[in-house]
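SAMPLE LOG
Freezer: B-3
Tube label: C17
Construct: single chain, 352 aa
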Amino acid sequence: MLILGIETSCDETGVALFDTDRGLLSHALFSQVDMHADYGGVVPELASRDHVRKLLPLCDQVLSDAGRARKDIEGIAYTAGPGLIGALMVGGSVAHALGFALGIPVLGVHHMEGHLLAPMLEDNPPAFPFVALLVSGGHTQLVRVDGIGEYQMLGESVDDAAGEAFDKTAKMLGLDYPGGPRVAALAEKGVPGRYRFPRPMTDRPGLDFSFSGLKTYTLNTVNAEKKSAEGLSHQVRADIALAFETAAVETLVIKCRRALEQTGCDRLVIAGGVSANKRLRAGLEKMAAKLRAQVFYARPEFCTDNGAMIAYAGAQRMKAGQRDGERIVAVPRWPMNTLPPLTEVRVTGLVD
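STRUCTURE (predicted):
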């Protein structure tokens, strides 16, 4: 089954072509980072308009790269949520229009399920069951995964997501958008031990996260250093970046260790934009080795939003008979544990 995947949940326009027999055939991505950098963050209306401009040309590009034509497509998967409502509607509209024109089924896919399944595109995919850490600008969640659609929420952030805390810290330090990679790059120049930031909610049982306190602690440190004799020099900023990153990473590692011990799983999947962080990967690998567990993650290009993960997730569900009805599905807020299991055939988006 040849599936076209469309991702437009935020500021990345991603398209991919996935064959259930041959695997990923082609993929293309256009990032809006440069456009939004002038505003210090994503402007929803600008994001939606750029998806309109880029989506169909990218669809034609992936078909050309794979040596296929539109008539060869057997199904279309698109991101239905969570995300920016305008951006979601662009992807859903194009998917349904193409599906109607070609007479093929269409299915709205959960964005975070796409991230969770992205490591399945690798040569050594994880087997079920496993624990997944989904960590991005909008989500920080620990999930037990027994199969596609079989999700048990173990813990999540009660306030800010880890990626959001990285972005806010970048602004405090005067770094450009996107903040996460820039904080990590600056932290490489930091001196270990100059500051020690708190590891929030690690002094109590449970698997929930909280990063608002760490963000506040960082802000207070920045403000205090501005008044010091040295001021907020480049080295001070690098040391603060390192202290923040170390605290955030160690918090995630501690919670992942608890989740593996609590569930008895020996496989950990890490997905989402923050999963590309090198310090986080190293910390999880070291922790997993002590527990004799394995860590799986997608290649760096599939850690951020992309069409390949949507094509793969959609292909698995469409093979099981799941599809949209006549109405576009766009759900800005969508708990992942409400998804049906893969074995349950369900038609969504029917006209009322």
